[in-house]
Amino acid sequence: MKVVPSPAELEPAERAVAIGTFDGVHLGHKAALERLGGAGLRSTVITFDPHPRIVLGYEIQLISSLARRLELLEQAGVEETLVLEFTVEVARLEPEEFVERILGPLGARAVVAAESFRFGRRRRGDVALLRELGLDVLDVPSVEGVSSSRIRDLLREGDVVAAAALLGRPAEVEGTVVAGDQRGGTLGFPTANLAVDPALLVPAYGIYAGFALGTRAAISIGVNPHYGGTDRRIEAFLLDFEGDLYGDDVRVELWQRLRDERAFESEEELVAQIARDVEETRGASRPGS
């Protein structure tokens, strides 16, 4: 998939275009991308970075990094993606200006859009305006109950199984492996401590079964209350794995929430519980497949 920052960097062609943030590239997005791929034109996505809500002064936690979003778009069969820098100036573009400055130079002939689609300043643009401006509108029905907002809510509740059903794949946490307290090694369960981009959503505190780097993983998200911690940690014990991961970027799938995090009466009790978590992880099933 070709990724560019401006329409000028794409060769002239007649294109079908899908526009959106595509955060999470969930089942609703995939329905739009399937419609895009079946249009018989060059399939092109316009997405935004940073997220428009951030530029407009709202707080939002992202399901996926831009790099992961692009990977998922490519896996969905998208040929080209224009990553448009979203600025205050872009937000102020009237819908007609957006069509003239962005869609026109792209060679857009059709836009994939649901009837609820809105764009341009004050969200004034809609599918009727697109048609008035000479563009075909390829309707895509909404997938009931599926939205990035709903997925965020489920992840904040720790319901990774329900979130996976809307994503069409397991929820993920991605970050860089950094040095931690190294207690896991002394307990017999060495962990990879992930530093996560603050812009990304991290699911509810708890212990999870999941998968990373080709093996199952028991993941702890929380403050490590047994040792009186206060800072959030994301630690993954990779079953049957040996190797040095410091400095590596790691993506962890979250398959199932096993339990709340808590303090224990003794270190022996903690170790016994971790062993049970590991056994549950071995038996966990991958959701969203």
List strands and helices in order, with pairings.
Blueprint: E1 2-4, E2 15-19, H1 27-37, E3 42-49, H2 52-55, H3 66-75, E4 80-85, H4 88-91, H5 95-106, E5 108-112, H6 127-132, E6 136-138, H7 148-157, H8 160-167, E7 171-178, H9 183-187, E8 192-195, E9 206-212, E10 215-222, E11 233-238, E12 249-259, H10 267-283
Parallel strand pairs: 1-4, 2-3, 2-5, 3-4, 5-6
Antiparallel strand pairs: 7-8, 7-12, 8-11, 9-10, 9-12, 10-11
Helix pairs in contact: 7-8
How would you describe this protein?
The protein is an alpha/beta fold and 289 residues long. The protein has two domains: 2-138, Rossmann fold; 160-283, Riboflavin kinase-like (Elongation Factor Tu (Ef-tu), domain 3), CATH 2.40.30. Helices cover 30% and strands 26% of the residues. The chain contains ten helices and twelve strands. The chain has helices at residues 27-37, 52-55, 66-75, 88-91, 95-106, 127-132, 148-157, 160-167, 183-187, 267-283, and strands at residues 2-4, 15-19, 42-49, 80-85, 108-112, 136-138, 171-178, 192-195, 206-212, 215-222, 233-238, 249-259. The strands form two sheets. The chain has a six-stranded parallel sheet with strand order 1-4-3-2-5-6. Strands 7-8-11-10-9-12 form a six-stranded antiparallel β-barrel. Strand 2 (15-19), helix 1 and strand 3 (42-49) form a beta-alpha-beta unit. The longest helix has 17 residues, at 267-283. The chain is elongated, with a radius of gyration of 22 Å. The model has no long low-confidence stretch (mean pLDDT 93).
